Amino acid sequence: MKEKYGLTTPEVEKLRQEYGYNETPKIQKSFISLILKRLVGPIPYVIELALVIELILGNFIQVVFIFALLLFSAIDGAIQENRASKSIGELDTKLIAYASVLRDSKWQKLSSRELVPSDLIHLSVGSVVPADCKVVKGAILVNQSVITGETKAVTKVEDDELYSGSTIIEGTADVTVEKTGVHSSLGKTTELVRTNEAPGRLENLLFTVVKYLAYLDVVLAVILTITALIRHTPFLSLLPFVVILFVATIPISMPSSFAVANSLEAGSLSKKGVLVSGLTGIQEAGSMNVLLMDKTGTITKNKPVVDEIISLNGLDKMQLFKYALATVKPSSVSPLDLAILQKAKSDDIVSIEVKQQISFDPKLKGAKAVLNNGDEIFLGSPVKGNLENQVKSKIDELSQQGLQVMVLTINQEAIGLITFKDQIKPDMPETIAALKKQGITVLMLTGDTVPTAQAIAQKVGLNDRIGTVDEALSAPLSFGGFADVYPEDKFKIVKSLQDKGYVVGMTGDGVNDAPALKKADVGIAIDTATDISKLAARIILTEPSLKGIMELVDAGHRVYQRMMTWLITKLARTAQLALLLTIGYLFTNFFPVSLNIIVFIVIFNDCVTLTLGTDRVKINHLPEAWNLKNLSKISAIYTVGWLILGFAMLWYSVKFTSFTHAQISGILFVYLIYSAMGMILSTRTRDHFWSIKTSKSVGTVIFINLVLSSLISILWLHTAALNVLAVFLICFVMFLVLDLIKVSYYK
């Protein structure tokens, strides 16, 4: 009896008291484990090797400083991971999977969290199995690789078991829930999103920069070795310097800085209805220059209503509608099916009896029903049938009105047309216009006919030149969209655009959008998306409006600008420090800055680097481009300018003063800190440095660094206060000059 009618509310409440909700407890990682994780990997290994070498050499002061640096970075990284987890961890509560459940003899759409054992649910194409179940009726093709690892789909029929987290590829079935929550194979469906994503363009560029800085260190180390051989200097006396050089170069704070920039934006976006399941989606949004929009559900509301029933052979419209209704299962959640069911309910129409039903299949672009007399009814897209010219003309006429047209056939003979009217989202023209202003080309994808696509394109402000799939693969940007697009075509179009060098965004909501959403650089699932589409996307909109895309793009620009500041200053500061110390040693035969002080320089620089993710920035309203060549050019301006000043200070101190090595080290120490803070203030905007204020955290850390470095130079390295003041004023003048050169370069 329960299999036929499902559970009643009292039965559900009783079972929930026994089994609880269909959810798994969130796995909490200890803070210590997060710290230890950051002591493993290529970058920490370099620092740890340096630590061991210094320990062997007996340089215990440097050992303490390097260990403090390593520990500080690990602790901060753990803090930032916690912050990032909070930003994207809200998937547990916001990314809700739904199921069609038979409760109190009525089919209802409920959160999968509400399921209890013995519930009767309906699964169709694109459903993610929300708990361990058993098939009681129907046949389905299931991808259960998330549990078993097997990539080949498996057919499941009556009495077969289904694993939680599997995906329905074909067919429909009624199933009973057997195990929920912690007792199921996987737990709730949102656990599927907990996978490691591939690094984005920004991360790849960051590691490329690190690689080239390491190359610079190797070259300088070779030069020092050759010099030591020529001068008969023991190499062990140079080894500490080489070690510290690598410590200063390797950006141990980089992962934390990156996490800060992204997680803060993710948290802010979450409050605006934009849920981030993949942090790289934010940074890629700033570079996105093509956005593919699926028409149904994205541009339109995907809440169609039956508009008109047209007979092609004189058959009564009521009979035609009954045939159409025969293809629809009461448990279906397809928008078109719901429109038919709604009309049947409002007009009090009862379906004729059928022998078999085959739900809507994206590949067939239609649904089928076999009547008791053997007649086969098909309701589907007109692109699938061989239609007479007169019928095609009628379809074109209706499509030009923006209506979605479905053809009704009996035994492959067209007998009628059913039109559906779907409203365009009210904010869509405004959103598309705003995206165009951002330099983003918007292209519409639809399975509808060309006339329907043209009518919609005109209404939302897109180019009404609609192309074919072949044209989408060859010259996509000369069109406003593409019609008659099949599920596999969307994936091909995304890949083709990426192969042409575009950064591609994709919005969608249906089962057939999932592969393209996964492939896109910025996959965006809208609020009404199917479970599988939400799991495939990096970004999920939790509100009906698509204005969240603009928020996402702006967030991407902010991340870009903050990381640009980090990259430019890292390139310039590292080259400046490495060349000043190496060349200075070659000409003076002593280290211009003591090795202990270099560790202070690293710590001070890392402290301000970690706050850059909070900085205020000006948004560039055009797609960003990660170009190492251009980055190197602007970095070279700062490197050359500050090196000229640094060499001048070193030359003057050695040639015309009686400063001790400690005092020279003090002067160059404050020069390196002042110049580093100046570079950060200058590079954070393409305009003059005063055009935008720093955030409180960035401004505070820069001020503290300036004060502490001055005090260390005066009190510890015995540099005269007047000399420190003179260095500050000279550096300030150079800072103004370089800021003027920077503005001229960008213009």
UniProtKB/TrEMBL annotation:
Enzymatic class: hydrolase
NCBIfam families: ATPase_P-type (TIGR01494)
Keyword presence, Nucleus: no
Source organism, top-level taxon: Bacteria
Topology with respect to the bilayer: Multi-pass membrane protein
EC number(s) reported in the record: 3.6.3.6
Listed name of the protein: Proton-exporting ATPase
Subcellular location(s) of the protein: Membrane
Keyword tags: ATP-binding, Hydrolase, Membrane, Nucleotide-binding, Translocase, Transmembrane, Transmembrane helix
Record's GO cellular component terms: membrane
SMART domains reported in the protein's UniProt record: Cation_ATPase_N
Principal cellular location given in the protein's record: membrane
Pfam families the record matches: Cation_ATPase_N (PF00690), E1-E2_ATPase (PF00122), Hydrolase (PF00702)
Residue stretches making up the Cation-transporting P-type ATPase N-terminal domain: 5-59
Transmembrane segments: 49-75, 212-232, 238-261, 567-587, 593-613, 634-654, 660-677, 698-716, 722-741
MF term (GO), any: ATP binding
UniProt key word Cell membrane: no
